[in-house]
Amino acid sequence: MILLDGKTASQAVKESLQQRVTSLTAAGHKKPHLAAILVGTNGASETYVASKVKNCEEIGFASTLVRLDENVAESVLLAEIDALNNNDDIDGILVQLPLPKQINEQKVIEAISPAKDVDGFHPVSVGKLVQGLNTFIPATPYGVMLMLEHFNIDTKGKHAVVVGRSNIVGRPMSILLSSNTKYGNCTVTICHSHTKNLTEICRQADILVAALGRPEFVTADMVKEGAVVIDVGITRVEDATAKKGYRIKGDVAFAEVAAKAGAITPVPGGVGLMTIAGLLKNTLQAYENRAKILGD
Ligand code: GUN
Fold first, then answer.
1. Which of 205, 122, 133, 207 lies closest to 167, judged by CA?
2. Cα(97) to centroid of ligand 1, in Å?
3. Which atom of ligand 1 is nearest to the CA of 45?
4. Where do the H-state alpha helices sit in 27-92?
5. Burial class of residue 210 in the structure, from the number of CB atoms within 10 Å of its CB (0-12 exposed, 13-18 middle, 19+ buried)
6. C-alpha span between 170 and 251 (Å, rounded)
7. All domains of the chain, ordered by start, with CATH?
8. Whose CA is nearest to atom 8 of ligand 1?
9. Nearest-CA neighbor of 296 among 85, 62, 118, 88?
10. What is the pLDDT along the chain (296 residues), one digit of tens a residue?
11. Is 20 helix (H, G, I), strand (E, B) or coil?
12. Which residue among 42, 45, 49, 97 has the greatest number of ligand 1 atoms within 8 angstroms of its CB, and so is best to mutate?
């Protein structure tokens, strides 16, 4: 069994990005600059955004964190996005999701300039992805693809089963795995809450991607011997014996599935780290696209 370690794989991506920034700044260019907007104080969102900012600093990107109150009006958030869209120093913008209920998430996603949409959630970015055009790939499925590439997993002609159909992970994941690219060319089945015979379908997977957000949902009986298992789940489960009062659980029952799988991602230390790598790559891409536009 191969452990698909996100630490080594993300480190490799980050090192190549860091080298690129070093040569850009040595040539007198500005650093790529990511702006993150965090609304409220949701614990998981705080952790994710802090990690995104920290990783920017580590590889030499500039970052700006805009914090808004939980009760902020939608118009105020939209005005912040507008200011960042028009700020030439900012290359990439992300608004951490989920957002409080007074804010229309779709409106926010569509307010971000497609040129700075490093989350790849804007309909323009999604449309380009579907058509196989160059675009920003949502960070988590992008991270999974980078993981497959790092470990040189053979995907051509394989049956990939994606459990979950979210706009952030499942749907773009299914598009990427089915696309005509080196780490694509899979036959993809996408499963969701209305799927019948889920266990049987999962058992047919050469590559199984669990992205439904239910801790330890995928058990050994759902996995074919030797399958590649990618666990996208990151759920905080209360645990009084843990220092922080919770533990992070994936969507896969790791120990029993690892005994059967050919390769598997751990949680934590797997796809989560690759997500950050995907975001950083998108930010550099936005910078390079914009540098051309701005004639830098
Ligand atoms: N919430 C969960 N995943 C993500 C992500 O990839 N980007 C943003 N902006 N919010 C998220």
1. 122
2. 5
3. 1
4. 43-59, 74-85
5. buried
6. 13
7. 28-113 (3.40.50.10860), 139-272 (3.40.50.720)
8. 96
9. 88
10. 999 999 999 999 999 999 999 999 999 999 999 999 999 999 999 999 999 999 999 999 999 999 999 999 999 999 999 999 999 999 999 999 999 999 999 999 999 999 999 999 999 999 999 999 999 999 999 999 999 999 999 999 999 999 999 999 999 999 999 999 999 999 999 999 999 999 999 999 999 999 999 999 999 999 999 999 999 999 999 999 999 999 999 999 999 999 999 999 999 999 999 999 999 999 999 999 998 877 76
11. helix
12. 97
| Encoded tokens for 219 | 């058990």
Question: Which of 112, 117, 142, 168 is the pocket-test mutation for ligand 1 (most atoms within 8 Å of CB)?
Answer: 168
In this structure, which residue's CA is closest to atom 1 in ligand 1? Answer: 97
Concerning whether 88 is annotated as a catalytic residue, the answer is no
Distance 279 CA to ligand 1 centre (A): 10
Examine the residue annotation and report whether 296 is marked as an active-site residue of this protein: no
Q: Out of 46, 94, 118, 126, give the residue to mutate to test ligand 1, the one with the largest number of ligand atoms within 8 Å of its CB.
A: 94
Atom 4 in ligand 1: residue holding the nearest Cα: 97
Residue with CA nearest ligand 1 atom 11: 97
Contacts of 153 (CB under 8 A, 6+ apart): 183, 207, 228, 263
